[in-house]
ABC transporter domain-containing protein
Amino acid sequence: MTLTTERPADAPTRETEPRIRVRDLTVGFTTSAGHREIVRDLSFDLSSGRCLAIVGESGSGKSVTARTLVGLTGRGARVDATELSLDGDDLRGFTERRWREVRGRRIGVVLQDALVSLDPLRPVGAEIEEALRLHGWGDRRARRRRVTELLETVGVPEPERRARQRPGELSGGLRQRALIASAIALDPEIVIADEPTTALDVSVQAQVLAQLADMKRRGVSLVLISHDLAVVAHLADDILVMRQGEVVEYGPVRDVLAAPQHTYTRALIAAVPGGHTRDTRLAPEFVLPAFPDRAAVPDDGVALVEAAGLRKSYSGPGGARHVAVDDVSFTLPRGRTLGIVGESGSGKSTTARLVLALEHPDAGEVRLAGRPWTGLQESRRRPERHRIAVVSQDPLSSFDPRWTVEQILRDALDGALRAPRARPASGTCWGSSRWTTRCSGACRSPSRAASVSASRSRGHSPGSPRSSCSTRRCRPSTCRCRRRSWICSSPCNARSGWPTCSSRTTSGSSTT
C-alpha cells in the first residue's frame, strides 16, 4: 500500500494558539507489584482545526495518553506534567465535577471498545440522549430528533429503529458508529478518537473519515489514535510515534511518513500490507507451540465444515422480525481459508455463531467433518468442541474480567488437551464440562452455603442409601449429580477459581 499525505485543499494550515498544551507528561500506575510508568516525558501541542495522530504498537501508551486528556486515567494512576492545559485552564488541578463539565461539551471521546463503553441494558438512543440531557440540551422531543440526526450522520441505517435497540443487538460496526454519535452529540471543540474506524467496513469508514474531515474544516481539533497509517496519512496534520511509553518521532505527517528518521517508524511503515507485500512476512516470525500427541489428520476428501441453507432471524422493537442471515451455504475443506466479508450488519458474525453452534438456525444445518453438528444436543456436541475455536470480535468483553489470563488459558486447555470422556452411567455425576459435576444455584459465601436437602434430591427418601462420588470442581455453590446432593467447601471468586464440591449423605454429614 502506498501512503499518500494528500488532504483536502481547504484544510486549515494556519498557526493558532494551541488548544491543548502537554509538556513532560508522565503517567504511572501503582499495583501490588510496584509502580510502573506507562507514559514518559510526552510533549505536544494541538491547535484549532488540526489533527494529531498518535501511532504505535499495542501497549505503547496511546490509549493511556488519550484518557489522561479527559481525566479518565483510572484508579492507582499517578499523573505528572510540567504543563497540561486546555485553553489556558490547568487540567492538573481539575476535580471530578469539573471534568464532567468538560467531557462531552468541550472534549468528545470515542473509546476503543464500543461494547464495553456502551451500557448493555439501555438502548443506544438513550445512551446518546444522556449526553444531551446531562448538559441541559433541549427538551425530550428535541433530543430524540437530535439522536436520529446523529445516527444518520454517522451512517447508521434505519436510525429510528436502531436507536431503540440495545448494544448487544447491533453488529460491531453499528455499535462503533453509535459511540461516535455519542461523542459528537454536543458538537465539542476537541474530539479524541481511539481507533474510531477499526470495526467499520470500507464504505462506512470513508463516511466517518469525511465527517471527521468536515469537523476539522469547522475548526474542531482532533486527536486520532490509530494503527491504520493510511487513515493517518489522509486525515492527520502531525504525527506522534510512540514505543514503550516514549515518543520516538514527532513532526508533520508529510515529513514523518515520507522520510522517517527512527528505525521503529520505518518498520511500522514497512509493515503496512499491500499488493507488493503479498506472500511476504510483515513481522518477525512467531511459531506457535505444538500440541502434544496431536498427529496430522489426513485429507479424506470430506469438507471440514459444510453449511447449507442457513437462516436466522431475531425479534426487534415492537415484535418485528429482523432477518440477519438468509439462505447462506458454503463448504470449507481442510487446510483452506474462507473469507466472509460484507458491511456492518450484513450477518458475518451471526453466520460464525451459527457455525460454532452458539446460535440455533431457524432453517438449514451445519455439518462438521461430514457429521451433524447444529442438530445435536449440546451434551453430545461438547466432546467435539475442541475441534472448532473462535477469536471473538471484542476481546475485552469476551473474557471474564474476574479471571486472570492464566485461568482463561487453563480453562481452554482443559478441554483442548484432554481426550473426551465417555458418558457415565446413570447414578454418577455429570455436568456441563467434560462430564464433571452438574451444578445449580448461585454462588454463596461459605457460611451460607447449603446443599439441597435430601427430601428434594430426585425423589429419594431421606433413608435411601447413597454411594459417595469423588471430589469434583463445580461452578455455583450448590451442586447436584443425578443421585446425590453436593455442597461447596469454598466460595466462588476470581482468584481461586470455582469452588470444590464434596458429596453429602442423606443424614447431612459430608464426606471428603
Notes: The chain has three domains: 20-274, 305-373, 418-512. The longest strand covers residues 34-46.
